[in-house]
């Protein structure tokens, strides 16, 4: 009898802890968000991240809070002899958090961010009929389903210095992380409502096929032609275009822009344009 009572009490405590865990996480994150933001981090945002000064209120404050959560919760690893600095960590965190500013999910499956000084070499295998071609290929970034993002710092610096060219390795790889949250790299992130999933499938498949045709014909495209590689790359490249070439995307691909606007709950077209 005593054993049964103890077991039931233990069970009740475990269930209680499971049920209240999200509440504790929210409270812990709120404390992190409310901490004073370091002035040296603020300088990094002001000097190096062109989108920051364009954000309408209350997004700059929210972004600063999210960066504080992200930098506490996520592990950064310097690779290839790189000594990680605050500039690197804040620059990466700011762009990663931009994608989840209205979702408050902080990449639950992301475990670590590996940063190389510049483009890094990876071993690849490609089937060519009966042959398998093995070669080393230089990469700017990678996103793995196991919750790992790999980035080149030289490319990150180049991308923030050329914000409106539509290429951004951090936005690209973290869009892949959003896509991979459900364990699949298929170009479809977690979308809550069934009706939104249907719209997503219609709009994305149509726009993806149109990009493939444009690339085949050699037509100039708003989105980088790398988006025609497969649906997963299409979503990642569409995300880069949405944030960096918002007005062009809205003009040329209004339906795609609207779906991304709904998904990210952000409207970069309305942000203050650079002077
Ligand atoms: Zn990619």
From TrEMBL:
InterPro entries: MetalloPept_cat_dom_sf, MtfA_fam, MtfA_N. It comes from the Bacteria. Signal peptide: none annotated. PANTHER family: MTFA PEPTIDASE, PROTEIN MTFA. This is Zinc-dependent peptidase.
């Amino acid at each position: 009898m005593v054993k049964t009572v103890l077991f039931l009490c233990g069970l009740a405590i475990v269930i209680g802890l499971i049920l209240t865990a999200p509440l504790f996480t929210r409270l812990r994150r709120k404390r992190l968000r409310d901490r004073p933001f370091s002035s040296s981090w603020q300088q990094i945002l002001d000097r190096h991240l062109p989108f920051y000064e364009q954000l309408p209120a209350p997004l700059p404050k929210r972004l600063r809070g999210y960066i504080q959560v992200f930098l506490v919760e996520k592990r950064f690893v310097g690779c290839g002899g790189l000594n990680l600095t605050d500039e690197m960590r804040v620059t990466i965190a700011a762009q990663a958090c931009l994608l989840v500013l209205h979702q408050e999910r902080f990449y639950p499956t992301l475990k670590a961010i590996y940063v190389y000084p510049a483009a890094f070499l990876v071993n690849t295998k490609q089937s060519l009929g009966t042959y398998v071609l093995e070669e080393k290929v230089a990469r700017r970034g990678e996103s793995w389903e196991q919750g790992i993002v790999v980035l080149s710092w030289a490319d990150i610096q180049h991308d923030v210095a050329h914000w409106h060219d539509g290429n951004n390795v951090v936005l690209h790889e973290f869009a892949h992380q959003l896509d991979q949250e459900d364990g699949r790299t298929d170009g479809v992130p977690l979308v809550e409502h069934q009706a939104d999933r249907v719209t997503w499938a219609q709009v994305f498949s149509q726009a993806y096929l149109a990009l493939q045709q444009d690339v085949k014909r050699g037509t100039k495209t708003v989105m980088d032609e790398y988006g025609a590689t497969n649906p997963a790359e299409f979503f990642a490249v569409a995300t880069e275009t949405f944030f960096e070439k918002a007005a062009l995307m809205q003009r040329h691909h209004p339906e795609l822009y609207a779906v991304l606007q709904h998904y990210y709950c952000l409207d970069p077209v309305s942000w203050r344009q650079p002077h």
